[in-house]
What we know:
Structural class of chain A: alpha/beta
Low-confidence stretches of chain B: 1-41, 141-156, 215-220
Radius of gyration of chain B: 23 Å
Largest sheet of chain A: 7 strands, mixed
Distance between the termini of chain B: 59 Å
Structural class of chain B: mainly alpha
Mean pLDDT of chain B: 76
Number of helices of chain A: 13
Oligomer: heterodimer
Distance between the termini of chain A: 31 Å
Helix content of chain A: 10-25%
Number of strands of chain B: 0
Strand content of chain B: under 5%
Helix content of chain B: 40-55%
Order of helices and strands of chain B: HHHHHHHHH
Amino acid sequence: MAEQPRYKTTDEVDFVIIGSGAAGGVLAKELSANGFRVVVLEQGPYLTEADFTHNEVEILKRCQLTNHPELQPTTFRKTPQDKAKRHRGFVYGRMVGGSSVHFTANYWRFHEIDFIERSKVGPVPGAALADWPITYPDLEPYYTKVEWEIGVSGLAGASPFDPPRSKPYPMPPLPVKSSGVIFERAARKLGWHPFPAPMAILSQPRPGRSACVQCGFCESFGCEVGAKSSTLATVIRTAEKTGRCEIRPNCYVHRIEINANGRVIGAAYFDKNRVTHLQKAKAVVVCANGAETPRLLLLSASKQFPGGLANSSGLVGKYLMMNSGPSAIAVFEHPLNDYKGYCVSRVLHDFHELDYRKVGFCGGGGLDARFDLTPIEFFVLNTNGYAGLPPGTPLWGKKFKNTMAHIYTRCMEIVGHGTSLPVESNSFSLDPDLKDAWGLPALRMTYRDHPDDLKLGTFLHDRIMELLDVMNPVQKWASPVEEQDFAYHLLGTCRMGNDPKTSVINADHRAHDVKNLFLCDGSSLVTSGRGQPTLTISALAYRAADRITNLARRSEI
Amino acid sequence: MNESLSRRHFLSRGITGFSAVWASAHWPALVAAATHAHQAAKSAAPPKFEFFTTDEAREVEALAARIIPSDDTPGASEAGVVYFIDRGLTTFAVADQKTYREGLPELQARVTEMFPGVSKFSALTPDQQDEVLHSFDDPSQQGQSQRRFQSRPGAGNLFETVRQHTIMGFLIDPDFGGNRDGVGWKVIGREREHMFKPPFGYYDKDYPGWEAVAKEAEKK
Lengths: 557, 220
């Protein structure tokens, strides 16, 4: 095996990639395999399977694997007229492998409609809905490539609403859970089409990786046996084997430097000891996620780019989308023991594409059957809401204990996932007052759901209630449909497009304004899909790597 | 603190249950993980308190025992929650030290106010203790059910802080310094294994396997 190279910061490598998640990891592998010299700068630590645990306090309370609300505080407001207040508005994976390490591993493709919805439904008041510069057929080969290279479990053809695919999944679905059986039976009674959830979790072993051992700690945790197909467990290891890719952890990039010609010359970062370095590179690819990518461009404002790097459109940070969806919990007579195993075993997409004129809103969504609450999360680690407990349950004492004893093994969740429309004022910007632990301006999140998103939320809530009626549980309750102030998905904030006035990057992921700067992650998305964006982010990264490789080989960077 | 068995079960079963190729490829990493967990467990519950005085520990233990009482099944006391909290206050919950140091005298003041002549919470009967605790109830916290991570749990309120720490100490993986002997998991019905196999529960045990809807319709 080739050793990881150690490049000097003064070495002008071919590419610096900022971030090593669902996009950065893929680009690191593809570009280094294509012969380029690559340095990946990752703000988080380099952890491996041996470091991952089921320690809920370390991971959920102390944020071992994520952005940290004390070191990286953020603010939130609903509209640009409001004064933002300190609030933890989003979470992302902060380690080598990024959010692909701690995510639930739901792995839906976007459908054809997601790329052309603007043409299909026309303008939507209050939203800057746009077609993508690419279509589903452009991305299909890359969806397939992701599924086969990293390992995705699923059953092709099981959902009649699936878009066309060139190959089946590389391995069968994971075993069904009790929640999936209950969901499947009820949905079929309603004439709907539940199907085995496509998951980026191995149902069969691969070299150096175990099949899923059903430990029950997927969401928010790193996989101890390499069964979750994170970029850490897959492409990053391949990248390292090329001998041309250096993964450099604990490097917090705070500025992209340019020269007098407006070309990027490298990335400036703080190392672990907060000493600044400048890694030189012929080109920079930013894959820092839909929050940190726009932040970095805004932090890189200069005389040439006073509004932020690559921001002549003024759209860097705007059109934030985070998907939305209602949820409910149902309690049954017998134990489901859904704490065992991976989270989601059945999904349905019957409401993925709705008739805009009939339902009166733009968008669609899917529903899944899941259980994603570890014991402490279930009973305490959720602020003023007590996620697993029925409303009104006493919060201590004998009755509390009795509820604890009864409910944990007997309940399941149904969660809806749907469209967020792109609204210009929904955005990430630099907070004028608050600084992070490194003295840099904190992220300010501005977000208010588009009215259609809330209508969709109510629509999906009603479908969940229909399902619950058929399931006939002993007890059930739903979260209210309301405006969101928290995101797991960070999308759309440096959108792709052909027109430099209405987008930040082109279809090659090149910044319209800077020839040797590329952006690829959730920020590239033009629409939000219906949820579960990670597969699309990785597929875009495979495609971007092809485009960037071709440009580099033609000396067009 | 008991040794962590679940990891070792996991390791031994990992060899027999999965391909030898995988196990040998991962053996050093798995051993490292298990050693780490074992170290954590060994250092998790020190024989003496690191943060609390003996008196404080007695008060906190009494509080925890009202939050998750012992009855026909184990409660916070049997789970050794007070040790978890003590260790937590010098590690993950350093920020809550003040809440305990300042909150306990306030609690004791409330005790004396309600039961003149008594100065310690732990000296009251369980019913009297409940009466004191109900005087701290926050009705605005009832009846809400939202998904987690919406913001940070509120702190600064002694009872709410003890309540959260007690549940954590009762339910955390026993490898990590609470939930002694896995009693918390026994109470909620969670098996103490590191990996599971289907069928998982009552409703999937007779699942006939995936069938497409069209095929089902043909059968009918």
